[in-house]
Amino acid sequence: MQVQEFDYVVIGGGAGGCVVASRLSEDPAVSVCLLEAGGPDTSVFIHAPLGFAATAALGIHNWNYQTVPQPGLNGRRGFQPRGKVLGGSSSINAMVYTRGNRLDYDHWAAQGNPGWSYADVLPLFKRSENNECFGADDYRGTGGPLNVSYLRSPSVINQAFLDACTEQGVPVTKDYNGASQFGCAPAQVTQKNGERWSAAKGYLTPHRARPNLTVITQAHTQRIVLEGQRAVGAEFQQAGQTQQVRARREVILAGGAFGSPQLLMLSGIGPAAHLQQHGIAVVHDLPGVGQNLHDHITTVLIYRTQRKDATFGLSLSGLAAIVRGIFQWRNQRTGMITSNVAESQAFLFADKSEPSPDIQLALCTGIVDDHTRKNHRGHGYTLHVTLVRPKSRGTVTLQSANAKDAPLIDPAFLSDPRDMATLIKGTQIGHDIMQGKAFAPYRGAMLYPIERDNPAQIEQFLRDHSDTEYHPCGTCKMGPASDPMAVVDPELRVHGIQNLRVVDASIMPQLVSGNTNAPTIMIAEKAADLIRATAV
């Protein structure tokens, strides 16, 4: 078996892994190895922003996970696309840059996680970004690796959405990542000059020539190598060959909300009874591994339209526009290919007694049905209505002791009745916005009609058409040793195991009120600081 040795071994080349590998390798005195199960991020489907619309349907750069059957979704299996490529899901997502609400992070700190309040993490958000929307101010940063901009060529239908929101009392906000989250605004996106700006492109690509940074792709990690209660490396398969990399200082696990708990359990760290069920020797009984899974659930209000100039669609004119758009993007990096589809955002209250917005809306400039996997002729537009603070909790468990077998993913969507009640109200508000006067020039028939004042009918609609908004988290929960479900401490060190940290969205004790790419990058920025402080 071939064995190489480094100071740090990072498992997973998603947002967390790219950031921490880049930051640690800034010190030329240390060596860093990054393992990624997928390939390099060279595909045009990644760098051309609209290419992401094909990745889910075609299964490109994607683990293509499914949930177990969901009782809350009438027994349907949910789709869980996760990035399998350098950059991870930041290379296949819709590029929306949101941080969540400041109260999310204050709540993390209040649960026994000092150093994670909003005041603590705001400087990390600012450090990570190069904000082209507003420049540097009290909330935003410039000069960082992650470029944040507005879309170069947004659709005209976005103004109708903003006007319809204001008709319903949802004001236009200057910056939903700034002083006030409440309101509507054009989407802020991780793009630069009309191209996707993933975590790989921002943090990793510029530094691939560093002699102390080794990136190994197509490397599917099988287990964390442990000596007693100490992590010393990782074992992976590449081209059918088993190899090891050893870590002199630390192993950093960044496999995401599904991959990180799976790999911990495959390595003997997790709920003892579950590991024994699969014949895995228990190294450390850690009950919280794979527990506390929660995810944003979203539903889709889809409208047909005759306005082909404002939306994507399956028609001869639509296909011709795509062809023209490809040439425009190749030559100018402008036009429809720069779209992230989810071109406008809003944060609002379904329950006005809540301390912060509990619903997120995203206007999509096309028909988005079953993650774009269900096609419809003609043109249309879609409103995503997303529950941002779900109460339902699920699990990630092992299907077998074979690392090649996908984990069993059970988000337990809508298992807590409070989630359904809030999502019904949010759907009614979304319906009111979509029926507003501002949409009159665009609006055709609903693809799946709902009766606005019939909660029972809306509930049935939600169970038939809702699914993930692609933000799973919580399965390696951060918390103090006194928390029986905590997997990592506030410095992201795995409880009971030396020299092992988790750095990804799985450590979130509670899901943030928005998309998770920016918060995951922030988590990795903080992790790099914590690791470097320990090494001094």
Structure commentary:
The chain is α/β, with parallel strands linked by helices and 536 residues long. The chain has a domain at 2-43 and 203-289 and 473-535: FAD/NAD(P)-binding domain (3-Layer(bba) Sandwich), CATH 3.50.50. Helix content is 26%, strand content 24%. The chain contains 13 helices and 25 strands. The chain has helices spanning 15-24, 44-47, 52-58, 102-110, 118-128, 157-167, 199-204, 256-266, 272-277, 316-332, 417-434, 455-465, 517-535, and strands spanning 2-11, 32-35, 65-70, 76-80, 129-131, 146-150, 183-186, 188-189, 191-192, 195-196, 213-216, 220-227, 230-238, 241-253, 269-270, 284-285, 297-305, 313-314, 342-348, 359-364, 378-387, 395-397, 408-410, 467-468, 500-502. Strands 1, 2, 11, 12, 13, 14 and 25 form a 7-stranded mixed β-sheet that branches. Strands 7, 17, 18, 19, 20, 21 and 24 form a 7-stranded antiparallel β-sheet that branches. Helix 1 (15-24) runs parallel beside helix 13 (517-535), helix 5 (118-128) packs across helix 13 (517-535) and helix 11 (417-434) crosses helix 12 (455-465). It is globular, with a radius of gyration of 22 Å. The relative contact order is 0.19.
